[in-house]
Specification:
This protein has 120 residues and is mostly helical. 58% of the residues lie in helices and 5% in strands. The chain folds into two domains: 48 residues; 51 residues, no CATH class. It has a two-stranded antiparallel ribbon with strand order 1-2. It is rod-shaped. The protein starts with 14 loop residues before the first helix and ends in a 9-residue tail after the last helix. 0% of the residues are buried.
Length: 120
């Protein structure tokens, strides 16, 4: 084939075209790699959050005071080991009733006639 000025040979690939094609392929591959990485990162992050929450809940419910509170909520009247005594005799534990719980949760300003220590 005879080359003329301004004419490109068909059987030889254009170097600029090849560079543009390679650049496009690298960008597409980079996009997909970034997408896959972000999905894996998000999944791992969700797993870490769930694991953290599970550990916090386990630690919370292992607390003896929390167990006492849950016992008081679940039962209307029951003897509860409020002071964590080593004695296993439940008859020595104070008896907690719903009325006692309600009065314990009332604000002190209602219980004291002079308004308690709050400034009004």
């Amino acid at each position: 084939m005879v080359e003329r000025p301004g004419q490109v040979r068909v059987d030889e690939p254009d170097e600029d075209h090849e560079l543009a094609k390679r650049d496009y392929e690298l960008k597409v591959a980079g996009f997909w790699l970034t997408l896959v990485w972000r999905l894996q990162y998000r999944k791992a992050d969700q797993w870490k959050r769930a694991e953290f929450l599970a550990n916090e809940m386990k630690e919370f419910f292992d607390d003896p005071d929390v167990r006492n509170v849950l016992t008081m909520i679940d039962w209307g009247q029951r003897r509860v080991d409020l002071f964590h005594s080593p004695d296993a005799n439940t008859t020595k534990y104070p008896e907690v009733t719903r009325a006692l719980q309600v009065s314990a949760l009332l604000p002190h300003t209602i219980l004291v006639s002079n308004g308690g220590s709050d400034c009004e």
